[in-house]
C-alpha cells in the first residue's frame, strides 16, 4: 500500500492548533521530589530526559476549536525504564496528534526501582491505568469520546503500552486501540532488551516473571487493535514487533505493522530521519480506517 501524501492526508483530516495544556497530578505523594532533568537537545529543539520520577502527572494537550467529541491517546515516552524522553516521545507527539484532531495526554510515569516481585504491580503500570481511568472519568471536561481512548508508547514506553493492552485489569483501563513505536515487547532472551528488563524486573528475575511481562505471550481476542512501527536495523530487535504482530494475527485482532529498512531507534516523529518520517501519515491513515478519526 502506498503511503498517503501529506496533501492527501490534510484533505482527510483538518489540521488544528493546540490549546494550552493542562497538567494533572496522578498521586498524593508529598515526599521529596528526586526528579532530575538532562537536556540533550537545543533551545529550539529540546530533548530532555527525566530520571528518578516520583510524582506522576498527565499533561493533556487538546486542539483549539473542538467540534464534538474527539479521540484521546495516552502517550508513554521511552527511556529503558530508567528515564523518560519527555519531549521527543511525549510533548512533540501530543502536538502532532492535536494537528490531526486528536487529544494527546503525556504520561510522566514513575520509574521502577530495584525490580519487582511476582506479587507487585509495576509503578509504571499503576500510573498508566490511573491515567486511563482519569481521562475517561473527565471525558466531558476535555471533549473526549470515552470509547475512543487509546494508548501509545515508544521503546520501553511501548512495553508499558503493550502491557496495558494485554494486562488491563478493569474495563475502564482497557485501551480502545494501541500504537507501539519501536517497542520493547519481550523480556525473553535473545529478543528482549536487557536494560529495560533489568530496570523493570531486576538483575536476576524469575522465569515466570520474565514470561509474564513478555507481552506477545498474553495477546487475546480482547487485546485492542494495534499499530506498530519498527526499523530492521533497530538495536531493540525488530523481532519484538514481529512477535507481537504474529500473536495479534493468531487471535484475529486487527493490526498493522510498518517496517522500515533503516531508521535505528529513538527517532520520535522521524522528521529529517529518512524513511521513518513516513510513520505519522501511516498511523493517521490507520486510525481513520478504524473510525478512530472521523
Description:
It is built from eight helices and eleven strands. By secondary structure, the protein is of the alpha/beta class. The chain has a single domain, classed as 3-Layer(aba) Sandwich (Rossmann fold). It has an eight-stranded mixed beta sheet with strand order 1-4-7-5-8-9-10-11, sandwiched between helices. The chain has a three-stranded antiparallel beta sheet with strand order 2-3-6. The two termini are 21 Å apart. The N terminus is likely disordered.
Keywords, please?
294 residues, alpha/beta, Rossmann fold, eight-stranded mixed sheet, three-stranded antiparallel sheet, 8 helices, disordered N terminus
Low-confidence stretches: 1-16
| End-to-end C-alpha gap | 21 Å
CATH architecture verdict: 3-Layer(aba) Sandwich
**Neighbour order of strands in the largest sheet:** 1-4-7-5-8-9-10-11
Overall, the morphology is: globular
Beta-strand percentage range: 15-25%
Helical stretch tally:
8
How would a crystallographer describe the biggest sheet? 8 strands, mixed
Say what the CATH topology is. Answer: Rossmann fold
The total of beta strands comes to: 11
User: What percent of the residues sit in helical stretches (DSSP H or I)?
Assistant: 25-40%
How is the topology of this model organized?
Elements: H1 6-12, E1 22-25, E2 36-39, E3 48-51, E4 57-61, E5 70-76, E6 84-85, H2 87-99, E7 103-108, H3 123-137, E8 144-154, H4 156-167, E9 178-181, H5 194-201, H6 207-212, E10 226-231, H7 239-250, E11 255-260, H8 279-289
Parallel strand pairs: 5-7, 5-8, 8-9, 9-10, 10-11
Antiparallel strand pairs: 1-4, 2-3, 3-6, 4-7
Helix pairs in contact: 3-4
Amino acid at each position: 500500500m502506498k503511503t498517503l501524501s501529506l496533501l492527501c492526508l490534510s484533505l482527510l483530516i483538518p489540521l488544528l492548533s493546540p490549546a494550552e495544556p493542562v497538567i494533572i497530578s496522578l498521586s498524593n505523594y508529598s515526599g521529596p521530589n528526586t526528579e532530575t532533568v538532562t537536556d540533550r537537545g537545543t533551545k529550539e529543539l529540546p530533548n530532555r530526559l527525566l530520571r528518578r520520577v516520583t510524582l506522576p502527572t498527565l499533561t493533556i494537550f487538546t486542539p483549539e476549536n473542538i467540534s464534538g467529541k474527539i479521540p484521546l491517546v495516552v502517550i508513554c515516552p521511552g527511556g529503558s525504564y530508567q528515564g523518560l524522553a519527555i519531549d521527543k516521545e511525549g510533548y512533540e507527539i501530543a502536538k502532532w496528534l492535536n494537528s490531526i484532531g486528536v487529544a494527546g495526554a503525556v504520561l510522566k510515569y514513575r520509574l521502577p526501582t530495584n525490580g519487582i516481585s511476582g506479587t507487585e504491580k509495576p509503578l509504571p503500570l499503576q500510573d498508566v491505568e490511573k491515567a486511563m481511568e482519569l481521562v475517561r472519568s473527565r471525558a466531558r471536561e476535555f471533549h473526549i469520546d470515552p470509547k475512543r481512548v487509546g494508548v501509545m508508547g515508544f521503546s520501553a514506553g511501548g512495553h508499558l503500552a503493550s502491557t496495558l493492552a494485554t494486562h488491563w485489569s478493569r474495563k475502564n483501563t482497557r485501551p480502545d486501540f494501541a500504537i507501539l513505536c519501536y517497542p520493547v515487547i519481550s523480556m525473553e532472551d535473545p529478543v528482549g532488551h536487557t536494560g529495560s528488563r533489568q530496570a523493570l524486573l531486576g538483575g536476576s528475575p524469575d522465569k515466570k516473571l520474565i514470561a509474564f511481562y513478555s507481552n506477545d505471550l498474553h495477546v487475546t481476542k480482547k487485546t485492542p487493535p494495534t499499530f506498530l512501527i519498527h526499523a530492521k536495523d533497530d538495536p531493540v530487535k525488530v523481532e519484538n514487533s514481529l512477535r507481537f504482530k504474529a500473536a495479534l494475527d493468531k487471535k484475529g485482532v486487527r493490526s498493522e505493522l510498518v517496517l522500515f529498512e533503516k531508521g535505528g531507534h529513538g527517532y520520535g516523529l522521524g522528521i529529517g530521519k529518512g524513511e521513518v518520517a513516513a510513520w505519522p501519515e501511516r498511523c493517521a491513515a490507520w486510525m481513520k480506517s478504524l473510525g478512530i478519526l472521523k
